[in-house]
Amino acid sequence: MMKDIYQQQRAMRNMRQAALQRGVIAVLDIGSSKVACFVLQFDGPGIYRETDGVGPMAGQSNFRVIGAATTRSRGVRFGEIETMAETERAIRTAVQAAQKLAGVRVDHAIACISGARPASYGLAGEIPLKNGKVGQGDIAHVLASCEVPNFGRGRQVLHAQPVNFMVDGRSGLMDPRDHSGQDLGVDMHVLTVDGDAIDNLIHVIRRCDMELAGVASGSYMSALSSLVEDEQELGAACVDMGGGATGVSIFVRKHMIFADAVPMGGDLVTQDIAKGLRVPLSVAERLKTLNGGVEATGRDDRDLIELGGETGDWETDRRCVSRADLIGIMRPRVEEILEEVAAILDAAGFDHMPSQQVVLTGGGSQIPGLDGLAARMLGRNVRIGRPLRIQGLPHQLTGPNFASTVGLALFAAHPQDEWWDFEMPAENYPGRSLRRAYRWFRNNW
Prior knowledge:
The chain is of the alpha+beta class. The protein is 35% helix and 27% strand. The chain has helices spanning 2-22, 84-102, 136-144, 195-207, 218-226, 229-234, 266-277, 281-291, 314-317, 323-347, 370-378, 403-413, 437-443; strands at 24-30, 34-43, 62-72, 76-77, 80-81, 108-113, 119-128, 155-167, 170-173, 183-194, 211-217, 236-241, 246-252, 255-262, 304-306, 320-322, 357-361, 381-384. The chain has a 5-stranded mixed sheet with strand order 3-2-1-6-11, with helices on both faces. A 5-stranded mixed sheet has the order 14-13-12-17-18. A 4-stranded antiparallel sheet has the order 7-10-8-9. A hairpin with a 2-residue loop joins strand 8 and strand 9. Helix 2 packs across helix 4 and helix 10 (323-347) packs parallel to helix 11.
């Protein structure tokens, strides 16, 4: 199975290289509430350099957004494709609009997935060094020496990244090449998801007359765009509050070492408002966006909001509700999501991180007062994260709700090394001790 995954990912990697060499590629964020498409144009040679080795494989590639579009998502629930035909129509709408703005046709896309029950594993491997010095081939051999647990039936590896190298016990090496020693060790983070979700993603992209040239974790992409360099280095958690799912990723030493997701997001808050106030979902979304919050004050009792409506019944359409009542509906669901996030951070051993920073991003993070509530519930420093500015991106697409899309663009330009980026020895693929991520915090960092 691992060999099949290796070959599939290598094939997508080769497609991505070819698309980047041609200079144009699309990135697709297929979420529960929206589908966003950016068309990226890459300039100059050396876009994807093999010689960069361990670390970011591409140098400071010059790229800019030449077309961007977003549309309401359909057929996606809890971050996974539920109705293929509706999802296909939404993707086509976004892609065609972005291509029209860009003035080019795009044949290859990189997409992210936010649901699919992610699970993180920490793997370890060690080999003796025959020449007394670490070479490129030794890195491939030590990755192949990692003992792989049984991930379970139907699971597929989404990311498999070396996050720490050790030479003769000297830990914390980012690039061990040319280091002298007798033994080389590696810690590798592996993220698995439900294979069916990946297969559905490949299928729907092909139905849109495109080829999938890469797939990535949505929570990973959001962290790439929202965590500043110091946070990625010293350690931080990124909580991406999307419409259908809330992703959690943990970074340290500029590597993702843990990821998970809560199958709840902002859409459930909207549904609670619709049920509680007996209004359509469109009205509930407007109330959440314009008038919502999680911290009520005495003034909110007197702040009346006209619900509006188009039922034709005058009394029903002219109903009002206090902002305090609206907050009273929203807050329990937001607290439930944050409780699940706190449980994930505890299970991952986040307490052992050198830094306790939490960054909230995604569309749901824009609820007023959320950062204060999250700081109290999580017991850590919390800030709202906006994605990095990238060249050519319209201002209206630079908010926290586009964090994963911007992260995908950065990922396309500066991909982190994965296990399949190395030429594995033909006779030795990772094949069979499972170590949880938090042990790395204790033992190495």
